[in-house]
């Protein structure tokens, strides 16, 4: 076994031990296929008011500009599919929250695991430089995960795997270490259009193309302005994020519950009624969502969403 093979096997083993669902590795370099797609998406204003998407265009496409002497992109998946979610019956009397926000803010949970992995690599292999990324930096997570064989990018623009569907976070370690590289997998969406047909705001404008500026997640999380009147009645009670295109995906029949204690839902969140949400005070909001991704909207933003759904 060569050193490259040995190091690669160790990294994948260590990633599993730390709790990641899976690990794939790609050679760091310019994402040629993604460049025209990203340029086109931005020029058509599919990012709406997410101005940050226009920044660092070159870095988004080339990790060697993010990490000196980068050789490999280690992509990692972390499952967040809940064992217990708000029942269909209960949903009728509650506003809906994306499953990824049930527990503690994933940024912190994953960052800790990535740092543990990098530290493990350094202990085992020696001097390895690298940086951890969790969707807050200009890295095309899904493109790298697909390139390293962890799944394919589906018609809803999410990364999908045959074995566990798509309810997981994607993160990366970009390191200056040469490793064995994985190959991309096949696209198994076939002729299915379930996600396109089900999207409440018709945000999936073509197979594999999502207009971010029409997505419920964009409206309820990213958009800081007033919600557009023409979207009234289309949100299907989603107050934070939206899972529709994942919920209808046939591959998510194979989703398995996560075993990350920090992603366990806050009990009060599972039992909130519409009335509870409508009457929540700033103090209660800050207390319940102190460590949650939901605090990103701030109390005022969440109130705006609930008021929009209620009126």
TrEMBL record:
<keyword id="KW-0411">Iron-sulfur</keyword>
<feature type="binding site">
    <location>
        <position position="189"/>
    </location>
    <ligand>
        <name>[4Fe-4S] cluster 1</name>
    </ligand>
</feature>
<feature type="binding site">
    <location>
        <position position="249"/>
    </location>
    <ligand>
        <name>[4Fe-4S] cluster 1</name>
    </ligand>
</feature>
<feature type="binding site">
    <location>
        <position position="224"/>
    </location>
    <ligand>
        <name>tRNA</name>
    </ligand>
</feature>
<feature type="binding site">
    <location>
        <position position="195"/>
    </location>
    <ligand>
        <name>[4Fe-4S] cluster 1</name>
    </ligand>
</feature>
<feature type="binding site">
    <location>
        <position position="199"/>
    </location>
    <ligand>
        <name>[4Fe-4S] cluster 2</name>
    </ligand>
</feature>
<dbReference type="GO" id="GO:0005737">
    <property type="term" value="C:cytoplasm"/>
</dbReference>
<dbReference type="Pfam" id="PF08331">
    <property type="entry name" value="QueG_DUF1730"/>
</dbReference>
<feature type="binding site">
    <location>
        <position position="135"/>
    </location>
    <ligand>
        <name>cob(II)alamin</name>
    </ligand>
</feature>
<dbReference type="InterPro" id="IPR004453">
    <property type="entry name" value="QueG"/>
</dbReference>
<feature type="binding site">
    <location>
        <position position="159"/>
    </location>
    <ligand>
        <name>cob(II)alamin</name>
    </ligand>
</feature>
<comment type="function">
    <text>Catalyzes the conversion of epoxyqueuosine (oQ) to queuosine (Q), which is a hypermodified base found in the wobble positions of tRNA(Asp), tRNA(Asn), tRNA(His) and tRNA(Tyr).</text>
</comment>
<keyword id="KW-0004">4Fe-4S</keyword>
<feature type="binding site">
    <location>
        <position position="215"/>
    </location>
    <ligand>
        <name>[4Fe-4S] cluster 2</name>
    </ligand>
</feature>
<feature type="binding site">
    <location>
        <position position="192"/>
    </location>
    <ligand>
        <name>[4Fe-4S] cluster 1</name>
    </ligand>
</feature>
<feature type="binding site">
    <location>
        <position position="170"/>
    </location>
    <ligand>
        <name>cob(II)alamin</name>
    </ligand>
</feature>
<keyword id="KW-0963">Cytoplasm</keyword>
<dbReference type="InterPro" id="IPR017900">
    <property type="entry name" value="4Fe4S_Fe_S_CS"/>
</dbReference>
<dbReference type="InterPro" id="IPR013542">
    <property type="entry name" value="QueG_DUF1730"/>
</dbReference>
<feature type="binding site">
    <location>
        <begin position="242"/>
        <end position="243"/>
    </location>
    <ligand>
        <name>cob(II)alamin</name>
    </ligand>
</feature>
<dbReference type="Pfam" id="PF13484">
    <property type="entry name" value="Fer4_16"/>
</dbReference>
<dbReference type="GO" id="GO:0008616">
    <property type="term" value="P:tRNA queuosine(34) biosynthetic process"/>
</dbReference>
<keyword id="KW-0819">tRNA processing</keyword>
<keyword id="KW-0408">Iron</keyword>
<keyword id="KW-0846">Cobalamin</keyword>
<comment type="similarity">
    <text>Belongs to the QueG family.</text>
</comment>
<dbReference type="InterPro" id="IPR017896">
    <property type="entry name" value="4Fe4S_Fe-S-bd"/>
</dbReference>
<feature type="binding site">
    <location>
        <position position="60"/>
    </location>
    <ligand>
        <name>cob(II)alamin</name>
    </ligand>
</feature>
<keyword id="KW-0170">Cobalt</keyword>
<comment type="subunit">
    <text>Monomer.</text>
</comment>
<dbReference type="GO" id="GO:0046872">
    <property type="term" value="F:metal ion binding"/>
</dbReference>
<feature type="binding site">
    <location>
        <position position="242"/>
    </location>
    <ligand>
        <name>[4Fe-4S] cluster 2</name>
    </ligand>
</feature>
<dbReference type="GO" id="GO:0051539">
    <property type="term" value="F:4 iron, 4 sulfur cluster binding"/>
</dbReference>
<feature type="binding site">
    <location>
        <position position="245"/>
    </location>
    <ligand>
        <name>[4Fe-4S] cluster 2</name>
    </ligand>
</feature>
<dbReference type="GO" id="GO:0052693">
    <property type="term" value="F:epoxyqueuosine reductase activity"/>
</dbReference>
<feature type="binding site">
    <location>
        <position position="217"/>
    </location>
    <ligand>
        <name>cob(II)alamin</name>
    </ligand>
</feature>
<keyword id="KW-0479">Metal-binding</keyword>
<comment type="pathway">
    <text>tRNA modification; tRNA-queuosine biosynthesis.</text>
</comment>
<dbReference type="GO" id="GO:0031419">
    <property type="term" value="F:cobalamin binding"/>
</dbReference>
<keyword id="KW-0671">Queuosine biosynthesis</keyword>
<feature type="binding site">
    <location>
        <position position="156"/>
    </location>
    <ligand>
        <name>cob(II)alamin</name>
    </ligand>
</feature>
<keyword id="KW-0560">Oxidoreductase</keyword>
